[in-house]
């Protein structure tokens, strides 16, 4: 009988090193996003970053070759979060296209809320990146918005939504998600995160839903 190949057990020491490296990378990315958003890319030195993250400058260079690499990594980290969390949320919402749209928008907002400093930094400093870096994040932005775009397109094709420009509707949802980071300083005076997501969802779906479908989604259209 043929034998089944067995994977070798992972070295516990190697696994521990991988966990520490991932934790350290996230620590550095969080500190860099916070500092660069506050002081600007050019206003942040590696020493300032080391102080913020409570590490040595030499340790930073073990993970990133220079400040440009670090900025690109901060932005890509947010896009990777979209790539991971948005499809998962959509699948968990089931087959209903409107529920999938609402779940996708919420997931985008949750990523933005978790990475507010990095989101603002993306708008402010992406022009600092090399042409290759800018092209990479542009393509990643297109790719990570595709699940939401697909959900909206499915809603139109199934008759749940009016015949809307799918690209523009996707763009508007994404702008509202990013708006939580860009205008958080103002919005937080009157809105909690949950309120913001619920009211923006209701606002967009009120415009997009076919009138005869509205009764099916009162839970998404009714806000406090």
From TrEMBL:
Q: Which UniProt keywords apply?
A: DNA-binding, Transcription, Transcription regulation
This protein's record includes keyword Transcription: yes
Enumerate the InterPro entries for this protein.
DNA-bd_HTH_TetR-type_CS, Homeodomain-like_sf, HTH-type_TetR-like_transc_reg, HTH_TetR, KstR2_TetR_C, Tet_transcr_reg_TetR-rel_C_sf
Designated name of the protein: TetR/AcrR family transcriptional regulator
Domain (HTH tetR-type): residue spans on this chain: 22-82
Which positions make up the DNA-binding region?
A: 45-64
- UniProt key word Nucleus: no
Species: Saccharopolyspora ipomoeae
């Amino acid at each position: 009988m043929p034998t089944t190949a067995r994977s070798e057990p992972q070295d516990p020491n190697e696994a521990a090193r991988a966990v520490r490296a991932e934790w350290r990378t996230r620590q550095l990315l969080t500190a860099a996003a916070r500092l660069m958003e506050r002081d600007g890319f050019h206003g942040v030195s590696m020493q300032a970053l080391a102080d913020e993250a409570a590490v040595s400058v030499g340790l930073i260079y073990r993970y990133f070759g220079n400040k440009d690499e670090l900025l690109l990594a901060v932005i890509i980290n947010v896009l990777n979060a979209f790539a991971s969390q948005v499809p998962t949320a959509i699948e968990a919402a089931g087959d209903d296209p409107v529920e999938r749209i609402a779940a996708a928008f919420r997931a985008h907002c949750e990523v933005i809320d978790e990475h507010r400093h990095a989101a603002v930094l993306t708008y402010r400093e992406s022009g600092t990146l090399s042409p290759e870096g800018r092209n990479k994040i542009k393509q990643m932005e297109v790719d990570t918005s595709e699940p939401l775009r697909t959900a909206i397109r499915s809603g139109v094709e199934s008759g749940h939504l009016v015949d809307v420009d799918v690209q523009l509707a996707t763009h508007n949802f994404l702008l509202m998600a990013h708006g939580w980071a860009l205008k958080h300083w103002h919005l937080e005076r009157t809105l909690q995160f949950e309120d913001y997501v619920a009211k923006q969802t209701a606002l967009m779906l009120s415009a997009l839903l076919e009138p005869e479908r509205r009764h099916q989604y009162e839970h998404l259209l009714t806000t406090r």
